[in-house]
Amino acid sequence: MFDEYGYSGASVSKIMSRAGITPGALYFHFSGKQALAHTVMVEQGNGLEAPPGDDGLQRLIDINLYLAGELQTNSLLRAGVRLAVEQGEFGAPDDTPYQYWVAQFAEQLLAAQEKGELLADVDVHELAWTLVSSYSGTQLLSQISTGRSDLYQRLVALWRYLLPGIATPAARSQLSFSNQWDHSAT
């Protein structure tokens, strides 16, 4: 519901009808639509399984591309992402979902730094924040422009432009962009 209609367009009655639940069931778990929306937003990453592999730059790229695929197929993730953007409509700003991804990206960047994959002047935490911001903007513009059908290609382009400024030439020569998560043709 939130994915399709956003916070304002998803009425409680529509939510209950789609979920096949009674008001009692909804209000047993949530105090109202605002609490439900906040939970969906904050827990958007729950249940996602990051691609396997050694921590580092390749795994970070794989996680980004995996998330692109999930945004094309996972309605709960799409709803959480949409609500994160629209959260001014239903309460005080909460950057929890963004900080979650900053921490996940920083973990991979720290591993990349330890492996010598990053240029010496890269600030891992600043880069993690920049990557989450860039990813968020890219997916939003892709959603508005093409319904995210070009998200995989846009993220590959983002990485191709960013990598020369953050990764060593040796690391860059070993990186690849797997299309296994590109669901734009399906």
From TrEMBL:
One of its GO terms (molecular function) is transcription cis-regulatory region binding. SUPFAM superfamilies: Homeodomain-like, Tetracyclin repressor-like, C-terminal domain. Residues 1-48 form the HTH tetR-type domain. The keyword Transcription applies. Coiled coil: none annotated. Keywords: DNA-binding, Transcription, Transcription regulation. InterPro entries: ArpA-like, CprB_TetR_C, DNA-bd_HTH_TetR-type_CS, Homeodomain-like_sf, HTH-type_TetR-like_transc_reg, HTH_TetR, Tet_transcr_reg_TetR-rel_C_sf. Residues 11-30 bind DNA. It holds the Pfam family TetR_C_45. PROSITE patterns: HTH_TETR_1, HTH_TETR_2. PANTHER family: HTH-TYPE TRANSCRIPTIONAL REGULATOR BETI, HTH-TYPE TRANSCRIPTIONAL REGULATOR RUTR. This is Gamma-butyrolactone-binding protein. It comes from Streptomyces paromomycinus.
